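Box 3.1 A note on notation
Throughout this textbook, protein chains are presented in two layers. The first layer is the amino acid sequence; the second is a token string describing backbone geometry. Keep the layers aligned when reading.
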Amino acid sequence: MTLKDAARAVRKNAHAPYSNFLVGAAIRTTAGNVYVGCNVENVAYPEGTCAEAGAIAAMVAAGERELAEVYVVADSAEPVPPCGGCRQKLKEFGAGDVKVTMGTIDGVEQKTTIGDLLPGAFDAGHMARS
């Protein structure tokens, strides 16, 4: 199954009773495994948790730590980029050159990289004292 197919399939499981905006994400690790996530909203946190964060949580729960590729899909006119928090999470587990594809259910795609999504990202090097 392709990342696109996996993201499209999990998107249908999203829980978005407030926004009705369903998002699916699929990630491939450097080991070749695929993990998926979808957005989940609730009354206390109506903006919910993001699809990318869910996929990353599944990856970490399985004992993996390195992203190789990301695909995100939503029902929108234009591809939707990951939110700021998810961009940082992607950076935590993927190199700057890791490919990120954002797609719509109508087939429009935009390709970028983690580095282009989050230039000047904070990392552990910023905490070092000379």
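Residues 3-127 form a domain with the Cytidine Deaminase; domain 2 fold (CATH 3.40.140.10). The longest helix spans residues 51-61.
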